[in-house]
């Protein structure tokens, strides 16, 4: 990461969500609650990609694709 990136991100109001590794000096402050929700969303996207129809985006329109994501979400929720 270039040297000026972190300060530019802070100036833009972007905050760290993923904590740095334990051995790293100068830990950036992060919000544990936001990290928990980010992890949940990331796991959801990983699990919907297990459905081939979603991963390869068979649907031609955005409306049909959004409907398939909703169907897959319901299937995952009922498991």
Can you give me a brief rundown of this structure?
This protein has four helices and no strands. The chain has helices at about 5-10, 30-50, 50-55, 60-79.
Task: Kindly describe this structure.
There is one protein chain. The relative contact order is 0.09. This protein is 57% helix and 0% strand. It is mainly α.
Please give a handful of descriptors for the protein shown.
about 80 residues; mainly alpha; about 0% strand; elongated
How are the SSEs placed, and which strands pair?
Layout (H helix, E strand, L loop, with lengths): L4 H7 L20 H17 L3 H4 L6 H17 L1
Q: Describe the biggest sheet?
A: none
Strand content: under 5%
Arithmetic mean pLDDT: 82
The secondary structure category is mainly alpha
Shape: elongated
- The number of E-state strands comes to 0
Distance between the termini: 41 Å
Unreliable runs: none
Query: Tally the helices: what do you get?
Result: 4
What gyration radius follows from the Cα positions, in whole Å? 18 Å
| Element-by-element helix/strand order | HHHH
Helix percentage range: 55-70%
């Amino acid at each position: 990461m270039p040297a000026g990136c972190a300060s530019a991100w802070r100036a833009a109001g972007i905050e760290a969500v993923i904590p740095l590794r334990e051995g790293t000096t100068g830990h950036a402050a992060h919000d544990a609650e936001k990290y928990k929700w980010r992890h949940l969303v990331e796991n959801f996207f990983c699990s919907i990609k297990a459905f081939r129809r979603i991963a390869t985006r068979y649907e031609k329109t955005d409306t049909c694709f959004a409907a398939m994501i909703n169907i897959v979400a319901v299937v995952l929720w009922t498991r």
